[in-house]
Amino acid sequence: MKDQLDRIEEKLDKLVDKQSSMDTTLAAQAVVLAEHVKRSNMLEEQMRPVQRHVAMVQGALKLLGAVGVGGLMALLKSLMSSKGS
Length: 85
What we know:
Number of helices: 1
Order of helices and strands: H
Low-confidence stretches: none
Radius of gyration: 35 Å
Number of strands: 0
Mean pLDDT: 93
Distance between the termini: 118 Å
Largest sheet: none
Strand content: under 5%
Shape: rod-shaped
């Protein structure tokens, strides 16, 4: 009976040791995660001006495309009307 209790106690001790090890690992991972989140937030902040610039360039290109199509249409209309005369 005493042997059984000793074995149970040893197993419980091993479980407690494993739990302590897991707690240590979890704490270390929490620190790493916090650093990762901090770096990610910093990088997102640095990307905001780039994102604004990209949106501005896209808008300018769309405007140039619309003006170009409008100009081409006017030119074609003018050529067609001059041929008809």
